[in-house]
Structures are given as C-alpha cells and as structure tokens.
Write the structure tokens for this entry.
Amino acid sequence: MDLMTWAWLIMTAVLLVGEMLTAGFFLIVFGVGAFGAFLVAVFGGSILWQWIVFIVVSVIAFAGSRKFARRVHHGPTDFGVGAERYAGMKAFVIETIDVAAATGRIRVDREEWLAESAEGDVIQEGTWTEIVKVDGTRMVVRPISESGEAEVADESEGSNTQE
C-alpha cells in the first residue's frame, strides 16, 4: 500500500474515533467518505478518483445522516418520561376515589395506580377518567362524560350565597 492509502485509512480511524468522542452525527460522514476513498486507493484508483469518491460519499452520508437524525430526534418529546407518559390517557376506576376516606385506585393499561380526584369529588368505581397529572405515586384524575370529554365542575354550584 502506498502513502495515500495509509493516509485514508488513518483519516478514517481518526474521524470515527472523533465521532465517538463528540455529540451529534458530524465526523462520521467524513469518516465514511474517507473509507470510500481508502477502498478506491486499495483497488488502484488515482488520487483524483479518491478525492471524488471522498466528496461524493461524504455528501451522500451527510444527507443520510440528516434523515436518520430527524427520525431519532424529532424535537422535544410530546410524551412524558416514566409515569408522566400516562398524563392525558384514559383510566378506569377500580376502587371509589374519595379523598376523605383516603381511597381510590385506577387501572391504566395493565397497571393499577393510587388515584385522587383533581376537583376533590368522589368518583365512583366503574367510572372512566382522564389522567390530569402524576403527583408522586398517585394519578390525579377527572371523570370523563359519556361523550369522552373530561367533565368540568360547574362553578355556579359553589357560588350560592345565603340571603
């Protein structure tokens, strides 16, 4: 092997090791291009063809890495991590939720969780609810109406004044 063949091989190794030590997908595209040029050099291609292959393969690898990067990381996640992923999901009440009695359990997917009502109301067993948030080891829920929408407490009920 001549000097340029070794140079392409060393450049490939340096770029790939550099990629492992940095964040993102930047050096790897040039490492792939350098490996392509190395292969051309091994098979006796001229220095011109080695550079052409290096540039073309690097551009193609760059385009492919952008598509891969978008698929892997598509911005801020729209789901929570851990139990937070349940926020917004439907849950079935399997034990009446009553803050005063300190009772309440729901089933979401195949898991059972302690639950409390978002408004402090009693929610009867057998009711479908929506998980509003996760508070420690408890799910905070709100009943869902027959139409599938979360029920909102009527604010006029609590505003009765005695005359």
